[in-house]
């Protein structure tokens, strides 16, 4: 657990919650020493008296405010505390705001707030209320002889105090030369580019997992240091190389769609090599159905290979044709056949037979 750097209380309205402040971040920079290249002796940060040019001990150093030329008022930690005792012992909440409305560039250093003796109940009350309302508390707090604006935020079961920069410490964005987000013409972003870029963003989206990220550059530097130790070149400075290409200057037309398409293709290759790390249940079910269908088709294919004659015969059987209409045939035949004589009545038939016999006699 990190050390306690401050003790006090959270106050808002009439509520007073005893808390302690612990650092929520730590530096992982390399610990380097300054050396005199002539004899490898360490070079320290000496405290020099500007009048005599001689170093002085830390115990003889005090703080002073210059109110006139060469005239100072001496100050120590007790002076800073008595200037405003309450301010140095409280996180004074002055208002609540929507947590998402605070621009990220205002945040500075995070700290954990932990309830002190008899502070559990008030701590839990404030935490539950802020969680329900979705608000962040803006507060004023004095740390290391300086007053800070701070944002108190809910994270998990804890309250986090993040010191902030005052408005006059933040440079206005209006001074930047940036494209207007509301104008596609000004930003140069076209609908097709935005669509493909959105696909790439969605493809790269994953759950927040900070443990998977680390300072790889520090690892590379440590590997280089160890290599110099193993090679016995600890006192040799590396000479600059000239094989690096100079940065290109001048305007260059970039096909953003082609770059995005290539990026999506590279992402696809990576996914094929290591598998999808995140599969949604619906996608898994669909993949399972497709696998079953593929297995069925494979089994059917194996069955066809085992009995080729039967399936070959089935293939040769012509498809059934719909029954032909006989009415159309009769009509066509009647059109080309000679006309038949109409049927004769019995009397007419007898008369014709008699006439025939008389002609024969």
UniProtKB/TrEMBL annotation:
GO BP term, example: double-strand break repair via nonhomologous end joining
Domain of life: Bacteria
Record's compositionally biased regions (Low complexity): 329-353
Feature: compositional bias, Acidic residues: 284-293
Keyword Mitochondrion: no
Segments of this protein annotated with the region Disordered: 230-252, 264-361
Feature: compositional bias, Basic and acidic residues: 264-274
Chain intervals with Basic residues compositional bias: 303-328
Role according to the record: With LigD forms a non-homologous end joining (NHEJ) DNA repair enzyme, which repairs dsDNA breaks with reduced fidelity. Binds linear dsDNA with 5'- and 3'- overhangs but not closed circular dsDNA nor ssDNA. Recruits and stimulates the ligase activity of LigD.
Similarity comment text for this entry: Belongs to the prokaryotic Ku family.
Name of this protein: Non-homologous end joining protein Ku
Species per Swiss-Prot/TrEMBL record: Cupriavidus oxalaticus
The organism's taxonomic lineage, starting at the top: Bacteria, Pseudomonadati, Pseudomonadota, Betaproteobacteria, Burkholderiales
Gene: ku
């Amino acid at each position: 657990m990190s050390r306690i750097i401050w003790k006090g209380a959270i106050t808002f309205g009439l509520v007073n919650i005893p808390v302690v402040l612990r650092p929520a971040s730590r530096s992982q920079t390399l610990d380097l020493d300054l050396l005199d290249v002539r004899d490898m002796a360490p070079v320290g940060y000496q405290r020099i008296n500007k009048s005599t040019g001689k170093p002085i001990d830390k115990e003889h150093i005090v703080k002073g405010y210059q109110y006139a030329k060469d005239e100072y008022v001496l100050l120590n930690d007790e002076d800073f505390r008595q200037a405003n005792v309450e301010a140095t012992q409280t996180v004074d909440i002055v208002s609540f705001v929507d947590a998402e409305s605070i621009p990220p560039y205002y945040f500075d250093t995070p700290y954990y707030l932990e309830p002190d003796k008899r502070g559990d109940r008030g701590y839990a009350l404030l935490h539950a209320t802020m969680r329900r309302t979705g608000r962040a508390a803006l507060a004023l707090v004095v740390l290391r002889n300086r007053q800070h604006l701070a944002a108190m935020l809910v994270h998990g079961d804890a309250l986090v105090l993040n010191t902030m920069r005052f408005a006059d410490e933040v440079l206005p964005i209006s001074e930047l030369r940036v494209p207007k987000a509301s104008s596609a013409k000004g930003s140069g972003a076209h609908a097709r580019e935005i669509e493909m870029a959105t696909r790439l963003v969605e493809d790269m989206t994953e759950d927040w997992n900070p443990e998977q990220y680390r300072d790889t550059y520090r690892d590379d530097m440590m590997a280089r240091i160890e290599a110099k130790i193993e090679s016995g070149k600890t006192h040799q400075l590396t000479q600059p190389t000239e094989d690096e290409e100079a940065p290109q200057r001048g305007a260059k037309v970039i096909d953003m769609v082609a770059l995005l398409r290539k990026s999506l293709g590279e992402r696809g290759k990576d996914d094929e090599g290591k598998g999808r790390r995140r599969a949604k249940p619906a996608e898994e079910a669909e993949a399972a159905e497709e696998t079953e269908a593929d297995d069925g088709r494979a089994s059917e294919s194996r069955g066809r290979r085992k009995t080729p004659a039967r399936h070959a015969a089935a293939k040769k059987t012509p498809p059934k044709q719909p029954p032909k209409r006989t009415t159309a045939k009769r009509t066509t035949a009647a059109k080309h056949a000679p006309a038949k004589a109409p049927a004769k009545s019995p009397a007419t038939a007898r008369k014709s037979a008699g006439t025939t016999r008389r002609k024969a006699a």
